[in-house]
Design goal:
By secondary structure, the chain is α/β, with parallel strands linked by helices. It has two domains: about 140 residues, Rossmann fold (3-Layer(aba) Sandwich), CATH 3.40.50; about 170 residues, Dihydrodipicolinate Reductase, domain 2 (2-Layer Sandwich). Helix content is about 35%, strand content about 25%. The radius of gyration is 20 Å and the shape is globular. The chain starts with a strand and ends with a strand.
């Protein structure tokens, strides 16, 4: 039985705990949150956990085998350093951290870490992404020539005072919501060469928080990627990624699934095998978050590598910070 401690008792901490409760191979044993009320609420939901007074106390606790870091982005560094000091397996929510200074400190640490270090790029654990990866590798669309991402949320309800609405703490849509697709663009397109971005950056002069970014990245080989992402308070909500090749295109949409478009424009729905994610897909019910946590537990128990580890965390963070620097300076950032 893998004993799991969770740093951060908010939305993601509770989500991971709910999914861990579905597994026979793991149990949540400890929790820490800077807000005691959240720790108390977590314990009321999961009575067998012990409440810890700090990230370091949780990470070093004998009843913790795996450390999950689900605290706010600007607090990730504290949790990572506490967990690294113990040598235990680590799963950290995305992104790796908030600032370039923290990234400079953390990148070599997680890169050299000898135990499991996994990052929460949950979309890698979806059947649609797994099938898209297979089809691209099999040459379904031929050589990739360009790509686009649309990650639009028109129902943003957070208010001023929430850490998500503080650009200095969250990085807004560039580091938070778009982090997943920065990772997937790296996965499918390779190494980015440059990025140019324009962004709102959660301007405080608005009555209620809103954020938006439009970015263009160029990858090795000349592949161009356009990325659009928002936290808005009206209008449509949808997330989709389209990868265009010489033989056609693949579009992966949260609302419509995966579709192949041939050169003539004919659309064909592509259905993923139920077992495309392997045996774990049968071991746990639920969405990609459930698949992710089942995989992390399996990796911690067996020593297998995760779908997204230190390398992917560093590469996506490099891209995200480049986008932020471009938006802040108005200049093209070259990697």
């Amino acid at each position: 039985m893998l004993k799991v401690g969770i740093i951060g008792a908010g939305r993601m901490g509770n989500s991971h705990a709910d999914n861990l409760a579905k597994l026979d191979s793991a149990a949540v044993t400890a929790v820490y949150d800077i807000d005691p009320a959240k720790s108390d609420a977590f314990k009321a939901k999961f009575p067998n956990v012990s409440i810890k007074r700090s990230a370091a106390e949780l990470a070093s606790a004998p009843e913790v085998d795996l450390v999950i870091i689900a605290s706010p982005t600007y607090c990730h560094k504290e949790g990572i350093l506490a967990a690294v000091a113990t040598g235990k397996p680590i799963f950290c929510e995305k992104p790796l951290c908030r600032t370039a200074e923290d990234f400079k400190e953390l990148a070599p640490i997680v890169s050299a870490y000898e135990n499991l270090f996994a990052i929460g790029f949950v979309r890698r654990y979806s059947p649609g992404v797994a099938l898209m990866e297979k089809l691209i590798a099999d040459g379904k669309i031929g050589n990739i020539i360009c790509s686009s991402v649309c990650c639009i949320f028109g129902g943003f309800r957070r208010v001023w005072g929430d850490w998500f609405t503080d650009y200095e703490k969250s990085g807004g849509v560039m580091l938070d919501m778009l982090a997943h697709h920065c990772d997937l663009q790296n996965k499918f397109l390779g190494k980015p060469v440059s990025v140019y971005a324009q962004a709102m950056r959660l301007p405080k002069n608005l009555e209620k928080p809103r954020d938006y970014v439009s970015a263009t990245a160029t990858y090795e080989g000349g592949v161009i990627s356009n990325l659009e992402c928002s936290w808005l308070r009206g209008g449509p909500s949808d997330t989709y990624m389209t990868v265009y090749g010489e033989k056609g295109a693949l579009k992966l949409s949260d609302s419509e699934g995966l579709t192949f478009f041939d050169i003539g424009g004919e659309a064909t729905k592509m259905e993923a095998d139920e077992g495309i994610l392997g045996h774990l897909q049968e071991d746990i019910s639920g969405n990609m978050y459930a698949q992710e946590i089942a995989t992390i537990v399996d990796c911690a128990l067996t020593g297998k590598p995760p779908k997204a580890g230190a390398k992917e965390a560093i590469e996506a963070m490099t891209f995200g910070l480049g986008m932020i620097r471009s938006a802040e300076t108005g200049e093209i950032v070259r990697f």
